[in-house]
Design a protein that fits this description.
alpha+beta, 10-stranded mixed beta sheet, 4-stranded antiparallel beta sheet
Length: about 550
């Protein structure tokens, strides 16, 4: 993909006195970034994994070592704050140190010292990171100069933070439920573990509510007065995150920062719920909304980076900032696209930006080669009336892992005599879930003929016409087929490093590439009509058998 000619933004959409944020000016901004050891940019998955590990260790210490549940959960929440929400560390670190000091007489001095050292060291790293934000802001203001203007749709109330607000309230409700049911556990250790979970959920709820308030406050600040503006280049990566480049980086060699954007923040809401603006037909509006949603889903499932586009950045960027981006739409017939940040600005150091760009280009090249190989294999193959794909050994391994996980969870938590009714209900629900998922993993089948695809399911094979197929993608461990108004997915183990090292192709990658080639080129599709036996059978009989086996095990066990 060439990025020499970015999509142009109309001259009328560019504010007066708006400077180009060139690579030279952006270099000073990048130089003001804090060191990597300040946890400047940590993946969400890593932050969640660290917090989960801290929660498990804390729960174990609370159940066996007598650590207060509040302190055990506090460490897990604090780890999440250090990596993902550093603004809250100023309140969390002193509170955690005070709790450690109060409980120190009842704990080994070594564990207390290690805990205090971790808190103080991480607090210092976060302090360096937050202090660097001032220098980033100063460099961004210098780059913008006197160019200031109001953001588009400044009069429309901000919708930032609504999702996090609802999520925080739900999590706090789960916290109350966990605390209220803590006394139902039989052993003292289980009760303490339940309180650890309750306090942890409370911390997550407070984190979500505070994040919602911070985001909403910063979004409102952008609307109150003219803000600095800079001309930049942007593009959406394969996951839908927006990458911001210097205005003269036409090769998209180094993104300066990334930010999650949404184009729905400035939409006016219909208060009466009847007709749209100026008496517009609500049915037509709904159809347009569905079409727009399909377009967005297609863009996300495309699995390739979008084109480079000219844009205007409203607001001075720094670590954690809120911004507005006015960019050229990918459809040249559409007006410029206004998007508000749905998450904070996440800067990239120069070296990290170069590595990210190199990885993106390598991934695009790998997908291009895989697509070419799939197309060549289809072209060179003798036209077949019907093509079929079915579960393989990796899917069987996934089914075995699922059964083992369910069996271990049941054995670990429900081996006590006199099983309460609520625990029995949980065991039954777990068995039903396994009875539904295991047949799909063991016996899924996709059949392609000239009319479309036939996808097996519990109630029987479903027909998907070729024109209704939206995408066939492998994402992480999952193979996902999406068509008009519905989708289907199955997951299997994958080790990307081993595949790259050995030059192997995951079966899901090969299947997705071949189906995508058939979807784009009708000449590559099968030529005949499939028969009922070729399309597979309903999977509900196997699910019923597994459910009966599970019920028999519970009766014998009970």
């Amino acid at each position: 993909m060439s990025y020499d000619e970015p999509l142009r933004l109309p001259a009328a959409a560019i504010p007066d006195d708006c400077r180009d944020w060139t690579a030279g000016r952006a270099a000073g901004w990048s130089a003001a970034l804090p060191p990597r050891w300040t946890f400047l940019r940590v993946r969400r998955s890593i932050a969640g994994a660290v917090a989960t590990l801290a929660l498990c260790v804390g729960a174990w210490a609370a159940m066996l070592g007598g650590l207060w549940p509040f302190v055990a959960a506090g460490f897990a929440v604090y780890a999440l704050w250090v990596l993902a929400r550093p603004e809250l560390v100023w309140a969390g670190a002193p509170a955690l140190l005070l709790a450690l000091a109060v409980q120190a007489p009842s704990q080994p001095w070594a564990s207390t010292a290690v805990g205090a050292l971790v808190v103080v060291a991480s607090w210092a790293a976060v302090a360096v990171r937050l202090r660097a934000r001032g220098a980033q802001l100063e460099r961004a203001l210098e780059a913008a100069g006197d160019g200031r203007t109001r953001v588009p749709d400044a009069a429309v109330p901000a919708r930032r933070g609504r999702f996090l607000l609802a999520l925080g309230l739900v999590v706090l409700g789960l916290c109350a439920l966990a605390g209220a049911t803590a006394g139902l556990w039989d052993s003292a250790g289980d009760r303490r573990g339940s309180w650890v979970m309750a306090f942890y959920l409370a911390g997550l709820g407070v984190t979500a509510l505070t994040s919602a308030q911070l985001g909403r406050h910063r979004a409102a600040e952008l609307r109150r007065a003219p803000v600095p503006v800079l001309r930049v280049l942007v593009r959406d990566d394969a996951q839908g995150t927006t990458e911001v480049y210097a205005a003269d980086d036409f090769a998209a060699s180094r993104p300066l920062f990334t930010v999650d954007l949404t184009s729905h923040d400035g939409e006016a809401e219909d208060e009466d719920g009847a007709e749209g603006v100026d008496g517009a037909d609500p049915g037509a509006d709904a159809a347009e909304e569905v079409a727009e949603l399909e377009r967005l889903l297609d863009a996300v499932d495309d699995d390739t980076a979008g084109p480079l586009r000219e844009a205007v950045l409203f607001g001075a960027p720094f670590d954690g900032a809120e911004v507005v981006v006015l960019s050229a739409d990918e459809d040249p017939d559409q007006p410029p696209l206004t998007e508000w940040s749905a998450g904070p600005v996440r800067p990239l150091s120069p070296s990290a930006g170069v590595r990210r760009g190199a990885r993106e280009k390598a991934r695009e090249e790998q997908h291009r080669q895989l697509a070419e190989q799939a197309r060549e294999s289809v072209v060179d193959r003798t036209p077949a009336p019907v093509r079929r794909w079915r579960a393989g050994w990796l899917d069987w391994v996934a089914a075995v892992l699922l059964v083992q996980w369910g069996g271990w969870l049941t054995w670990a938590g429900f081996t006590d005599a006199g099983l309460p009714s609520w625990k029995l209900g949980l065991v039954v629900a777990l068995g039903i879930y396994g009875a539904v998922r295991v047949p799909v993993k063991l016996a899924w089948r996709i059949t392609a003929d000239r009319s479309g695809l036939w996808v097996t399911g519990l109630r029987g094979p479903r027909h998907v016409p070729w024109d209704d197929i939206r995408s066939v993608r492998r994402r992480s461990f999952e193979l996902k087929l999406r068509w008009r108004d519905d989708d289907w997915s199955v997951a299997a183990p994958r080790w990307a490093w081993f595949e790259r090292r050995r030059g192997l192709v995951h079966p899901y990658d090969a299947l997705a590439a071949e189906l995508s080639a058939m979807r784009r080129d009708p000449a590559l599709r099968p030529t005949g009509e499939s028969t009922a036996p070729e399309r597979g059978r309903a999977l509900w009989p196997l699910a019923l058998v597994l459910a009966l086996v599970w019920a028999t095990v519970l009766v014998v066990w009970g």
